[in-house]
């Protein structure tokens, strides 16, 4: 499990673990939901999210229910995702299950 932030680069800006933690807490408060960022690997979902802001993520999470994805990766640009369609490494944050740790994040791929 990696603890240092992984950042996505590109027009959408940066998103790191602390932002994910804030988003998780905000989802629970405002949307009565557990963590909804799952694992974003496809350019399709990158296009869906647009700008990576908490407000936008919140709206998208609400619109897509409990399954929402966001593209993250060490040195992975959104342009590369568009070309390749997937990332080799991405942050994977899974929904919290009863009795599980509050946040589980790591590198997959």
UniProtKB/TrEMBL annotation:
Residue intervals of the STAS domain: 13-85
Q: Which InterPro entries match?
A: STAS_dom, STAS_dom_sf
Q: Which domain of life is it from?
A: Bacteria
| Name recorded for this polypeptide | STAS domain-containing protein
Write down the Pfam families for this protein, in alphabetical order: STAS (PF01740)
């Amino acid at each position: 499990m990696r603890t240092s932030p992984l950042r996505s680069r590109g027009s959408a800006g940066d998103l790191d673990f602390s932002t994910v933690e804030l988003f998780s807490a905000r989802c629970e408060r405002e949307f009565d939901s557990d963590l909804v960022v799952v694992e974003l690997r496809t350019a399709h979902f990158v296009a869906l999210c647009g700008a990576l802001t908490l407000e936008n993520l919140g709206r998208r999470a609400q619109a897509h229910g409990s399954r929402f994805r966001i593209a993250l990766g060490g040195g992975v640009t959104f342009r590369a995702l568009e070309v390749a369609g997937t990332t080799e490494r991405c942050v994977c944050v899974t929904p919290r299950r009863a009795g599980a740790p509050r946040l589980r994040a790591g590198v997959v791929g």
